[in-house]
Structures are given as structure tokens and as C-alpha cells.
Predict the structure.
Amino acid sequence: MIPVEMDAWVVARPGPVSTRPLRRVRVPVPAPGPGEVLVRVEACAVCRTDLHLAEGDLPPRRPRTTPGHEAVGRVAATGPSAGRLTPGTRVGVAWLRSTCGRCRYCARAAENLCPYSAYTGWHADGGYAEYLTVPEDFAYRLPEEVPAEKLAPLLCAGIVGYRALLRSDLPPGGRLGVYGFGASAHLTAQVAIAQGATVHVLTRSATARELALELGAASVGDAADPPPEPLDAAILFAPAGELVPVALAALDRGGTLAVAGIHLTDIPALNYRRHLFQERTLRSVTANTRADGREFLGIAAAHPLRVATTPYPLDAADEALAALAADRVEGAAVLLPGRFA
Ligand SMILES: [Zn+2]
Ligand SMILES: [Zn+2]
């Protein structure tokens, strides 16, 4: 039985988290549109992008939108002309919600760059709610045996981190530097280690350094420390532009630095000889394609990853966001609606 109304959170007025930009509301359960399915949410992870949306770093695309783009649940109903996913199917709803399928970027398998793309929790209501809708072509099938709380962080932290790993051009058996060690980095590091990389983790958080060693990092250091050996590739997960020259200077000849975040503070002036010469490359990472998502979820199913999570009831979404803003969350914060908490 699908209820008429549900609990949800909306970004009422974007602003600093201290001004409580999220508001709890009772709203009608949405009806799935053409090609969409309705998903009953079992867990939704909290991403740093949700914080950027709540605080207004990413301007709202529509008023009073429900954030959340790492939702795990089951199909509760199908809309007109949907039917690939039947009711009861376990699915994940991620950041990329739709693309045009016709532009030059979509045509060359770069749908992450589609100018007509839309995003869950930004252009449409997301998973800080008991139900949400998603175009079925953009939902991922998920395994049955893993708890929802441990699957949710894979949907953005995992998938976008995996794209950053691909963009870092790490050679097989190479040396990877990981700058910052939150939800996304701890998953990406495990994939790189499983694939044979030597991983050096540089982060200011002492508890994150401990976790990195437990997960198999070869060394850990403070964010601005030089790694013990030159790096073939590096990924910057911390939203700190001042670490760009630090990471570039740590690269070996021909190395690549990929910046994983959607938002970065200003990058200080670079020195050509110290930071770029010898064919070092600086790259951004923009969202992901569905192929990245399927590939990563396949890897996660084959090499079960340790997913560090801190559960919060859905009622405490604003507290979870405030904890993330204050760097007080270990691993990923995950919201659980009442009946799953
Ligand atoms: Zn397109
Ligand atoms: Zn995200």
C-alpha cells in the first residue's frame, strides 16, 4: 500500500548550515511520470554536494527541492511506458537523473558532459524522503544481500570516486596519491588497492589516517606532506584548491592529478617548472556516465568493499548535514526512514 503523504526534507532557503536551510515537510507521495518508477527509500547517503546545495554554493534549479542522490530502495510502482523494472526490484538512484541522448557528448559516450542533463536532488526531488521517482533507464539494479545502509554511499561517493580513478590514468600496479579521505576516497582507495596499486593517503584527519592504514594504504601523511615516493597519479578529494600545487609537485614525470569534487576553493598560482613541466596533467572530473556506474557497482559486487557509515534517522537529516559541515562524520552519513532505522 502506497500512502498518500510522506515525510521529506526540502531546501527552504539556501544558506549556511547554521541557519538551518533544510525544512522538514509533509508532502504528497509523487506519482511516477512516463518512463519513471516510484521508489520506496530504504536508505539515502548524505553527500558533500547536498551541503553545497543547502548552502547555495550550487544555486537551486527549482524552489523547495528535496536533496539526496544516493538512495537505495525498491520499486513501488511504475509510470506509463515504464516496465523494465518491476515492483519489488531493488534499485539505486544516483546523481545523474537524465541526459538528452542526442547531443555531441551523448553521441560519443560522454553523457556526463551533456548540457541538457538533469540531476537528482537538484533538478528533481531526491532521497531525503520516504519515496522518490526516477527515470527507470537511470536507476541501477543492486544486489539483494548487502544492507541498504552499506549500498547507499556507493551511488555517488563510490561511482564518482571511480570515475576520478579512471580520469587519473593510474597505470597498472602504479603509485596513487589520495588527498583527503572521506566517503568517496575510502571507497576509491580500496578499488585501487584491489587492482594492485600502491596507495599513499594524505589527509589532515588522524582518524582517517588510521582507517586508511586498516584498509591497506602503503603510507599515510598530513595533507601537505610529501608522499614517500613520486606518484604516477593522484586524486584530490578534499575541496581545497591550495592542495592542487601540493599534489602536482608530488607527481612523477608524466603523472596526472584528477580533481574529484564538484566544488573547489580557488587554486593558487602554479609554477610551470615545479607543478606542470615534464608532462604532468591536471584534470577535472564531471559527474559520471551510466557506464561508469555499472562498471563500479560490478567491481563492488565482485570485491566487497568496506563501507564506513554513520546512520541517522531520516528525521535528523539537518543534524547529519551539520555534522558533515563540521567534518564530524566518520565515513558516510546515511539517512534511514523510520521503518528501516
Ligand atoms: Zn546530451
Ligand atoms: Zn554526491
User: Anything to note?
Assistant: The mean pLDDT is 96. The radius of gyration is 20 Å.
